[in-house]
Amino acid sequence: MTEPGSHEFVTRSSRLAYDGAILALRVDEVEMPGGRTARREVVEHHGAVAVVARDDDGRIAMVRQYRHPVGRRLLELPAGLLDGGPAEDPLTAAQRELAEEADLAAERWQVLVDLVVSPGFTDEALRVYLAEGLSRLPAAEREHEEADLVVEWVSLPDAVRMTLAGEIVNATAAAGVLAVAAADATGTALRSTDSAWRDEPTAFAARR
């Protein structure tokens, strides 16, 4: 038996159980401490980006969008998948999503926070940006759920209150709101947009 914290979790075998449009399910046999193996189901997913777009008055552009798995509209950040392939640049994707969902462009971009969504079963990860120096763009054409979304401008104090009150429950939105509030309060410098993203998912995109 190895000392706790030193075991190498080697994957002894792997098979693809499902390969869909936005995710794949992989079943791995992983060596555990003591020599036995355990089955681990892994949902492979595209990486994603989200944007805390803050205007000169300190308001955040949020979108209220229907989410079918939970059966209701949620207040979220503009966000989207990195579904342009392994070579897609996350910043370019974030700029596209901000334009498509909120009809906005931004002059200044920084990395706000990196997230692994639910590492117990999926490799899905998101990079959340802070975008400032906003300008309006012509209205984008939208389809499916996005044709019904509404852009709402929320002050940062109100967004924090709504998060803590359980009114903002989208995990990415909650993390982004609280991260920018914490950065403001502590004066913590944010990362540049070319900062390494250690956990950016690649497995699902590589299958396409």
UniProtKB/TrEMBL annotation:
<keyword id="KW-0378">Hydrolase</keyword>
<dbReference type="GO" id="GO:0006753">
    <property type="term" value="P:nucleoside phosphate metabolic process"/>
</dbReference>
<dbReference type="Pfam" id="PF00293">
    <property type="entry name" value="NUDIX"/>
</dbReference>
<dbReference type="InterPro" id="IPR015797">
    <property type="entry name" value="NUDIX_hydrolase-like_dom_sf"/>
</dbReference>
<dbReference type="InterPro" id="IPR000086">
    <property type="entry name" value="NUDIX_hydrolase_dom"/>
</dbReference>
<feature type="domain" description="Nudix hydrolase">
    <location>
        <begin position="44"/>
        <end position="176"/>
    </location>
</feature>
<dbReference type="GO" id="GO:0019693">
    <property type="term" value="P:ribose phosphate metabolic process"/>
</dbReference>
<protein>
    <submittedName>
        <fullName>NUDIX hydrolase</fullName>
    </submittedName>
</protein>
<dbReference type="GO" id="GO:0016787">
    <property type="term" value="F:hydrolase activity"/>
</dbReference>
<dbReference type="GO" id="GO:0005829">
    <property type="term" value="C:cytosol"/>
</dbReference>
